[in-house]
Amino acid sequence: xxxxxxxxxxxxxxxxxxxxxxxxxxxxxxxxxxxxxxxxxxxxxxxxxxxxxxxxxxxxxxxxxxxxxxxxxxxxxxxxxxxxxxxxxxxxxxxxxxxxxxxxxxxxxxxxxxxxxxxxxxxxxxxxxxxxxxxxxxxxxxxxxxxxxxxxxxxxxxxxxxxxxxxxx
Length: 169
What we know:
Elements: E1 12-17, E2 27-32, H1 33-37, E3 41-47, H2 53-72, E4 77-82, H3 86-96, E5 103-106, H4 111-115, E6 119-122, E7 128-131, E8 134-139, E9 142-148, H5 159-168
Helix pairs in contact: 2-5
Domain Thioredoxin: 2-168
Family: Belongs to the peroxiredoxin family. Prx5 subfamily.
Enzyme class: oxidoreductase
């Protein structure tokens, strides 16, 4: 499992782009994790799945609501990572009104999730390999804080905890 002080692994995540611009085409676009985090402070939070109860009712809304405060605390971007495809993440982002606040980053094959060592096997529930619920504050590609939830919990990866940590760095 990735630890505080580790660099994020090489790889890419996809984001569904609604409006063409800045070298991005409409639809799914791949972003190199190392290049996208270089020189930035990123609040990353990951969760088991789009449109699932806790993720939709608490986790994403908390970060959408706290986006301005997180930016004021020095966070350049907020990423929601889930083992879903970019089309699903794009639709979920629209439903959650995340545009301009939280980047909905798809890890469709769970490659990033496996590389950070935070997979969750939900095969018995019909969901396959997913991500554990966690958050981390990343500065210039290096993990500065890491908050991994216990199974079935939502207590330490929330936006309020991330905001407190961002203000402390």
